[in-house]
């Protein structure tokens, strides 16, 4: 673990706590936690990404268990989706040091703007379950979503939970609350898939990751309980706020890359 002063430790713990809460409600905690890790002196981008996965999996495991006990998500959907996401995340992690993030950011930015606009203009979207398919078509579509977003999580990471909620609501027709529950189970699998690649390659900073992970765990427990108590309307509001933050962050990154 790098030598850190007291202020840096406090800021990292606060980042982990906040990221855990946001991630448990609607995803997107990596938007907070990963940039905080990148500020640690001497840490490489791959080490930051790997250590972020360790911190995040502690939070996603907690929120997934909380959602499972209180919401009871459909495991026939969660199972195929999580397995495909794990495979995708492993593959994405293997490509993390080879493909520049700049190739993906403009595309993701356009998608997010479209999603945010559609969500705001459709106030009843995600208020209730309105599943578009049943049986194998439903499960294969869920698995496809898991594979694609899992690959993104292994490759880049921030906003994965949010993208999962987006897909579950807009493509499969879930309400926001059960979508968040399914997203947490799948997000746990994506974190595990990425760690299965990063750990053997020695990219994880264990002391730093466990410290942030403990804070992430506490935030995730609080966030999941709040989401369950307040329902889909609350999750929808947080969803719009987080998507807006992602748009601002990615928009700045794209603008900065174009200027460079």
Automatic annotation (TrEMBL):
Localization: Cell membrane
Membrane-topology descriptor: Multi-pass membrane protein
Transmembrane segments: 78-96, 103-120, 140-156, 163-183, 203-222, 234-252
Keyword annotations: Cell membrane, Membrane, Transmembrane, Transmembrane helix, Transport
GO cellular component, one term: plasma membrane
Family indicated by similarity: Belongs to the 4-toluene sulfonate uptake permease (TSUP) (TC 2.A.102) family.
Protein name, as recorded: Probable membrane transporter protein
């Amino acid at each position: 673990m790098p030598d850190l002063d007291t202020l840096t430790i406090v800021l990292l713990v606060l980042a982990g706590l906040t990221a855990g809460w946001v991630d448990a409600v609607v995803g997107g905690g990596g938007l907070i936690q990963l940039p905080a890790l990148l500020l640690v002196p001497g840490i490489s981008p791959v080490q930051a990404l790997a250590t972020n996965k360790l911190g995040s999996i502690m939070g996603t495991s907690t929120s997934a268990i909380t959602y499972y006990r209180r919401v009871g998500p459909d495991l026939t959907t969660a199972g195929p989706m999580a397995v495909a996401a794990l495979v995708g995340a492993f593959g994405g992690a293997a490509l993390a040091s080879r493909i520049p993030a700049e190739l993906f950011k403009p595309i993701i930015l356009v998608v997010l703007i479209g999603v945010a606009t559609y969500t705001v203009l459709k106030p009843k979207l995600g208020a209730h379950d309105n599943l578009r398919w049943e049986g194998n078509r439903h499960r294969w579509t869920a698995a496809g979503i898991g594979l694609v977003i899992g690959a993104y999580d292994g490759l880049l990471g921030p906003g994965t939970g949010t993208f999962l909620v987006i897909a579950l609501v807009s493509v499969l027709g879930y309400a926001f609350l059960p979508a968040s529950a399914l997203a947490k189970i799948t997000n746990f699998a994506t974190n595990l898939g990425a760690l299965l690649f990063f750990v053997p390659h020695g990219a994880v900073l264990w002391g730093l990751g466990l410290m942030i992970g403990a804070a992430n765990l506490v935030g995730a427990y609080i966030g999941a309980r709040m989401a369950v108590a307040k329902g889909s309307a609350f999750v929808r509001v947080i969803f719009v706020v987080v998507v807006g933050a992602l748009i601002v962050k990615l928009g700045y990154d794209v603008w900065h890359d174009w200027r460079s």
